[in-house]
Amino acid sequence: MIAIGSDHGGFALKQEIIKYLTDKGYEITDMGCFSEESCDYPDYAYIVTDAVTTEECEKGILICGTGIGMSITCNRMAGARAAVVNDCFSAQAAREHNDANILCLGARVTGPGLACKIAEIFLETPFDPDERHVRRIRKFETGYYPED
Ligand code: RB5
Fold this sequence. Notes:
alpha/beta; Ribose 5-phosphate Isomerase B, Chain: A; 5-stranded parallel sheet; about 15% strand; globular; binds D-ribose
């Protein structure tokens, strides 16, 4: 199950991505918002991140105007590895190198065709469990600092 959420700025793109991914066979749970009425992106970032970090959902997709507010909010929560992605190369690298578990998109940055493709690449690309990637993720997940 894939969790998806947006604020008002990402609402229209969220609807397009839900249709695109559902047509591809993905099961999507829409965690809001449910209209273009102005709302606060952290509310939806928290709901989707919680679903991912508790393993209720395997990955999350969040959309706001830029993807930035969503990613900042997500990455304050333990276990979140949220990446703002605006191109296909970064979608693949975010999965292979960073094991990103939440994709953040900017509806005012990325058009719907590219955003749908980015979401598909993000969901289909596995983590590359090479030792160097595992080591680097462990460093930021455990609060390691270079002087330690
Ligand atoms: C809302 O106007 C906008 O600030 C929000 O969608 C997002 O871009 C924040 O990062």
